[in-house]
Amino acid sequence: MELTAGYPFWLIKDGLPFQYPRLQNNISPEVSIIGGGISGALSAYFLTEAGVECVLLDGRTIGLGSTCASTSLLQYELDAPLHQLIDIVGKTNAVRAYQLCGLSIDILVGIMEKIGYREFDKRQSLYYTSHSSQKNFIKKEFEARRNAGFNVEILTRDQIKVDYGMKAEYAILSREGATINAYAFTHALLQYSIQKGLRVYDRTKIKSIKYNSENVELTAEDGYKVSSGKLINASGFEIVNFISKDIVDLYCTYAVISENATEKKELWKDGTMIWNTDDPYLYMRLTKDNRIIIGGRDERFSTKTSREIFQKKASLLQKDFEKTFPDVQFKSEFAWSGTFGRTKDALPYIGEYSKTPNTYYALGFGGNGITFSVVAAQIITDLIKGRLNKDAEIFSFERKS
């Protein structure tokens, strides 16, 4: 499955910073992980920190799936607004899912500081609407977030214009958030974990999986075998190659990035992450060299949408930005598309699946893929270590939705 098209900025910026070997012999680790993106890297980090011997395998060169196409916004907000998610999954689970994503941002910042990764910024997040008719929607969402313990504030049109130079009617300003480079962070995590005993093999595509009562046997295309007591599948949106296609709907999202503007001051207040209430929504952020990233204009996944129209979408995204920020110049430099998945209840799938014994899934679907990957890594590490995790049920395959 082709997960990206165009020129993902992070791949152009960082290239291939590290080389990893191809699997060349049969191995028997305690735990094997399929997926060399941010989800697999975080699972490997938490496991190695817990003293679990593990091996990570990827069919591509490390990071060249959806991770290199990520726009890398760290937000606690899910694709479904909190007050609507409460109606879908109940108040307790909805609030806890939001809170876990908020906690994950702090955990990620702590990990980055620990491993010496510096390409991140703590940022506020602005959730806005351009429609005066959505006043009540914004009020409901504000109250739901405030009641869940988040530090939020409602802004109105004049304040938004003064503070951000934006054309918008209402907005919710959230204090918690951050921006990173998920591609570089993935490599940094793996390099740190390798020093702790992790083994990483890329260009090692798994051809078949045999699920046994005592272990899991993987066979690579080259014929080499990996036999492990437990398997973590962190293959992300390619999970449809392993289990049912019914659990997720795949979409293409599009992104465009401007030329750098290092000679200018920050282009809007505090470099705040910005996204709107539309469906599909538009999202914007700044990079460390003052580039503007705009993303959105999602469509259902197909080879055509992924590979042929991202440049047209980039032009539309630029127009969206210019309508929102009429006084900010945007000169595009790179455009790309990436794949993401949506579940019916906006929550990821994490944990065991009855049809595949000794296997755990770290599937952080939706716009919160990175923060949910932290949640998945924590839950799965607890399950492998035999510890109770009270949040596992919220994201299980057996949950009611």
Give a description of the structure.
It is built from 10 helices and 21 strands. It is an alpha+beta fold and 401 residues long. The chain has helices at residues 9-14, 38-49, 82-89, 91-115, 135-147, 157-164, 182-195, 303-307, 310-324, 369-384, and strands at 4-6, 31-34, 54-57, 73-74, 120-122, 125-129, 152-156, 170-174, 178-180, 199-201, 206-211, 216-220, 225-228, 230-233, 249-258, 273-276, 283-286, 292-300, 332-342, 349-352, 359-363. β2, α2 and β3 form a beta-alpha-beta unit. α3 (82-89) crosses α4. The longest helix has 25 residues, at 91-115. The strands form 4 sheets. The protein has a 9-stranded mixed β-sheet. A 6-stranded mixed β-sheet has the order 10-3-2-14-21-20, covered by helices on one side. The protein has 2 domains: 4-70 and 183-245 and 346-395, FAD/NAD(P)-binding domain; 121-178 and 248-342, D-Amino Acid Oxidase, Chain A, domain 2 (2-Layer Sandwich), CATH 3.30.9.10.
